[in-house]
Design goal:
F-box only protein, two-stranded antiparallel ribbon, elongated, about 160 residues, mainly alpha, Monooxygenase, F-box-like_dom_sf, ubl conjugation pathway, single chain
Length: about 160
């Protein structure tokens, strides 16, 4: 078996030119799955990733980044998830012509913070100094109105 060296001369990798692995190696050197699969399959794969994985995948290489960045079908499911909390904001952005990706990026942090507020995570906080600064974001008056309504409803339910 022929040996080929890698960067580190102390480590030798045996050549497997006649194996199935070698065939895959030749095929993968001709391009990754994004190049080789039909676009709808690639989009389906990327659209199954959670946000953190999707962001990491977009950092893998330029082709993956472009595929992820430029395909609204990858972003739509995540945007619809955020819409469960930020329906008004997302609907307004979509009506204004923003792509699913732009809409998601504009509303992601707000949806996380708003979800925490609406779930009552900050119900027992009595002063601004006690709020976790890094998890806050600017919100409009309508959003604060929704949060206030949820807080008042919680208070009424507690007192009953």
């Amino acid at each position: 078996m022929k040996e080929t060296s890698t960067k580190n001369n102390n480590f030798k990798v045996p050549s497997t030119e006649n194996s199935a692995d070698a065939e895959w190696g030749r095929a993968s050197s001709q391009g990754d799955f994004v190049e080789r699969l039909p676009p709808e399959v690639t989009v389906k794969i990327f659209s199954q990733l959670d946000i953190q994985s999707l962001c990491r995948a977009s950092e893998t290489c330029r082709r993956w980044n472009l595929t992820i960045r430029d395909n609204d079908d990858v972003w739509k499911p995540h945007c619809l998830t955020a819409r469960a909390v930020c329906q008004r904001e997302i609907d307004d952005d979509r009506k204004s012509g923003y792509t699913w990706r732009e809409t998601f990026l504009r509303n992601y942090q707000k949806s996380k913070v708003k979800r925490e507020w609406l779930s009552g995570r900050y119900s027992n906080i009595r002063s601004p100094e006690n709020l976790p600064e890094k998890s806050m974001c600017p919100m409009d008056a309508d959003t604060w109105g929704e949060i206030l309504e949820a807080e008042l409803k919680r208070e009424v339910e507690k007192s009953q």
